[in-house]
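WARN retry 2 of 3 for item q-0093 after timeout on previous attempt; input resubmitted unchanged.
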Amino acid sequence: MTAPLTRALDRGASLFLLIVAAGAVLVPVLHFALPPSSSFHVPLYLVALWGKYVCYALLALSIDLIWGYCGILSLGHGAFFALGGYAMGMYLMRQIGTRGVYADPILPDFMVFLNWKELPLYWYGFQSFPYAMLMVLVVPGVLALVFGWFAFRSRVTGVYLSIITQAMTFALMLGFFRNNFGFGGNNGLTDFKDILGFNVQAPGTRVALFSISCAALMLGFLICRAIISSKFGMVLVAIRDAEARTRFLGYRVESYKLFVFVLSASMAGVAGALYVPQVGIINPSEFAPAASIEAVIWVAVGGRGTLTGAALGAIVVNYGKTYFTSGPLAPYWLFVLGALFVAVTLLLPRGIVGTLRYFAGLRRERKAAAPAGAPAEGDAAAVARPAE
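OK item q-0093 returned
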């Protein structure tokens, strides 16, 4: 495992990890060590906001792994993100106990309001944090396994696969909107109190969640880099570029696609689980197809097939969303987002990071193509000046 990780950490990857690690350390320091009057003090609302951005970056990373390196365009990855969020939300709801509005020690408030007499079977076990964290990985992973097994075995690819992933998340959204599903219906799960005995609203908890989200992003990035830098990753790229030829060479294409799809779904579930305690709510709107399409736009803007670009695109686009939706342009955000996607598609088809890498590659090629004996520009004056 050490060798793939060593190969995976090039200059760009190391810089990305360094920036994320610095953020995980500096944000808590700037929040606690500096007074609110300081210009460098990070207020609590920004800690939660940046934590949300980091969770979105992890979601974008999971999409880039399958889209950028395997050619699987999923327009339903918001479903895995939301399922991970609901698993965490169910744990947090079980921690409320008698502190709820109806003071029921077992049933969440919405179940008491809807006259539920007992806790549904699928809620059992969520009072345990390890069990809930296991479900965060297992539930999205199992859904991706079942869905992917049927889709890839049937050799559904391209736009057809994208459409059925969108249908999947839309069906889940309709189901979770129903009150009799036992997940809070339209209102979802909210009014959380504690996580592992710590107050969710406390500054220390907020800052810890931000740092944990950064650590999860770094771990997810390392896993993705290790995969794409290995022989397995080379096969994924071959599937992306020429699936029929790869299958003709004897590779079981379906198995490769299924594995990376399940891994990507579990990563999205972790992102959703970290997202919920920081925003304080999870509801069926997270299943909306528009949310999944927006996540794909993040990857396209940052640069598909770059990993760092996917994370950067998620942060840049969501910062723009925060900026535009807090002013007079709020009703026009979707138009801005659509225009941004069209502009990137036409003017920067490789995305931000992909374009930068392209021009850097051209520069290296020009240097390599220069005659070996020709002096560099900086040495021209030295060559022209005779020795004294």
